[in-house]
């Protein structure tokens, strides 16, 4: 009789009660994937640059979805782009994840969160096979994608090219990137000007 | 793992930036991933694509340049040799031996002596001269054959939209 209910038994009961409460009574908190991954929580690690580099390629994907995916895969831009290329879209984050993350990007995309529960069609860049119109609908134009609207007004064909070629030709990776991006932007600006001229004719 | 591929891609990138080729741009999307590039291809003159600037991504396999990259348009485009998801279907992107369409000669296909620059130039000539034997986009092939006027007007619209007009 005496000693049949001692301290160890009480502790055991307490553990069982806690486990019972945790896994049986409130399954909603533990079953979702956010609960499971919250142990690592690399949240703060996602840099705006990573988000931007994904967004530039896939402007049809919302910033929130990109950030959420990067948070979950440890900020791997390549894993996220791989996923978009394979699936054609990224799942939208749950409302709880959106609330916690202020958006640092001053882009227009931020202001318009994708309607939750909308038709899946708006997330996938590929159109339905029945449409005979152009493929890959839903991309933004290049001027918007690379935020070139401000340069469009000041751009005069030829002017920036002079600055570019007078800068010393360094071949280290960082200077290659700077020159490469500048060339990309100039090509877009020039094409835009040519198209404007073509349409005036 | 992909160190050889990265070395090769870095040298191709340097070459592309130092010796600019008219009408094409290509470069890695971000400094820390050389296996995914973005590129621009100008619409060839005297075609309905003229004046447009068409963007695409190039995805390189770990064993590049043994295996070819995958090229996918990231803009609105209508073309018989471009799948509805934007993936481009031309012989230079197919490894020899793997000929899904049974008409390509081995010399036209991918080999390590090809390069990003050659791929993009091939895509540019593909834009100018669609090959309607390869029906990557059946609707586009049909329209190209049977209703050229509509095909050209849609292509012209895509070209305008690509530069935001």
UniProtKB/TrEMBL annotation, chain A:
<keyword id="KW-0472">Membrane</keyword>
<dbReference type="Pfam" id="PF02845">
    <property type="entry name" value="CUE"/>
</dbReference>
<dbReference type="GO" id="GO:0043130">
    <property type="term" value="F:ubiquitin binding"/>
</dbReference>
<feature type="domain" description="CUE">
    <location>
        <begin position="46"/>
        <end position="89"/>
    </location>
</feature>
<feature type="compositionally biased region" description="Polar residues">
    <location>
        <begin position="98"/>
        <end position="111"/>
    </location>
</feature>
<protein>
    <recommendedName>
        <fullName>CUE domain-containing protein</fullName>
    </recommendedName>
</protein>
<feature type="region of interest" description="Disordered">
    <location>
        <begin position="84"/>
        <end position="136"/>
    </location>
</feature>
<dbReference type="InterPro" id="IPR003892">
    <property type="entry name" value="CUE"/>
</dbReference>
<feature type="transmembrane region" description="Helical">
    <location>
        <begin position="6"/>
        <end position="24"/>
    </location>
</feature>
<keyword id="KW-0812">Transmembrane</keyword>
<feature type="compositionally biased region" description="Low complexity">
    <location>
        <begin position="121"/>
        <end position="136"/>
    </location>
</feature>
<keyword id="KW-1133">Transmembrane helix</keyword>
UniProtKB/TrEMBL annotation, chain B:
<dbReference type="InterPro" id="IPR023313">
    <property type="entry name" value="UBQ-conjugating_AS"/>
</dbReference>
<feature type="domain" description="UBC core">
    <location>
        <begin position="4"/>
        <end position="164"/>
    </location>
</feature>
<dbReference type="GO" id="GO:0061631">
    <property type="term" value="F:ubiquitin conjugating enzyme activity"/>
</dbReference>
<dbReference type="InterPro" id="IPR050113">
    <property type="entry name" value="Ub_conjugating_enzyme"/>
</dbReference>
<dbReference type="Pfam" id="PF00179">
    <property type="entry name" value="UQ_con"/>
</dbReference>
<comment type="similarity">
    <text>Belongs to the ubiquitin-conjugating enzyme family.</text>
</comment>
<keyword id="KW-0067">ATP-binding</keyword>
<dbReference type="InterPro" id="IPR000608">
    <property type="entry name" value="UBC"/>
</dbReference>
<protein>
    <recommendedName>
        <fullName>Ubiquitin-conjugating enzyme E2 2</fullName>
        <ecNumber>2.3.2.23</ecNumber>
    </recommendedName>
</protein>
<keyword id="KW-0882">Thioester bond</keyword>
<keyword id="KW-0547">Nucleotide-binding</keyword>
<dbReference type="GO" id="GO:0005524">
    <property type="term" value="F:ATP binding"/>
</dbReference>
<keyword id="KW-0833">Ubl conjugation pathway</keyword>
<dbReference type="GO" id="GO:0036503">
    <property type="term" value="P:ERAD pathway"/>
</dbReference>
<dbReference type="InterPro" id="IPR016135">
    <property type="entry name" value="UBQ-conjugating_enzyme/RWD"/>
</dbReference>
<feature type="active site" description="Glycyl thioester intermediate">
    <location>
        <position position="89"/>
    </location>
</feature>
<keyword id="KW-0808">Transferase</keyword>
């Amino acid at each position: 009789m005496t000693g049949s209910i001692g301290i160890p038994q009480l502790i055991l009961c307490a553990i069982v009660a806690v486990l019972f409460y945790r896994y049986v009574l409130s399954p909603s908190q533990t079953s979702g994937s956010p609960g499971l991954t919250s142990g690592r929580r690399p949240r703060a690690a996602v840099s705006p640059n990573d988000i931007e580099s994904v967004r530039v390629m896939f402007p049809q994907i919302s910033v929130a979805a990109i950030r959420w995916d990067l948070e979950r895969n440890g900020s791997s831009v390549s894993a996220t782009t791989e996923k978009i290329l394979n699936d054609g879209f990224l799942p939208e984050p749950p409302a709880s994840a959106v609330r916690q993350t202020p958006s640092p990007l001053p882009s227009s995309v931020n202001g318009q969160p994708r309607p939750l529960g909308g038709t899946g069609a708006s997330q996938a860049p590929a159109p339905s096979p029945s449409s005979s119109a152009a493929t890959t609908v839903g991309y933004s134009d290049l001027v918007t994608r690379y935020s070139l609207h401000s340069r469009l007004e000041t751009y005069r064909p030829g002017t920036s090219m002079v600055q570019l070629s007078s800068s010393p030709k360094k071949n280290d990776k960082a200077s290659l990137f700077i020159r490469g991006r500048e060339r990309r932007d100039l090509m877009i600006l020039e094409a835009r000007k040519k198209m404007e001229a073509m349409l005036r004719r | 793992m992909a160190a050889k591929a990265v070395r090769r891609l870095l040298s191709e990138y340097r070459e592309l930036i130092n010796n600019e080729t008219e009408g094409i741009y290509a470069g890695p999307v971000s400094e820390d991933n050389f296996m995914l590039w973005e590129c621009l291809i100008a619409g060839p003159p005297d075609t309905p694509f003229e004046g447009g600037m068409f963007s695409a991504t190039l995805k390189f396999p770990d064993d590049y340049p043994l295996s070819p990259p995958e090229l996918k348009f990231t803009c609105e485009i209508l073309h018989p040799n471009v799948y509805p998801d934007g993936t481009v279907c031309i012989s230079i992107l197919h490894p020899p031996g793997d000929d899904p369409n049974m008409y390509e000669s081995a010399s036209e296909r991918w080999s390590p002596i090809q390069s990003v620059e050659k791929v993009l130039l091939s895509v540019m000539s593909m834009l100018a001269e669609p090959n309607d034997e390869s029906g990557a986009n059946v609707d586009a092939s049909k329209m190209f054959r049977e209703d050229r006027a509509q095909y050209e007007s849609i292509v012209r619209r895509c070209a305008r939209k690509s530069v935001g007009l």
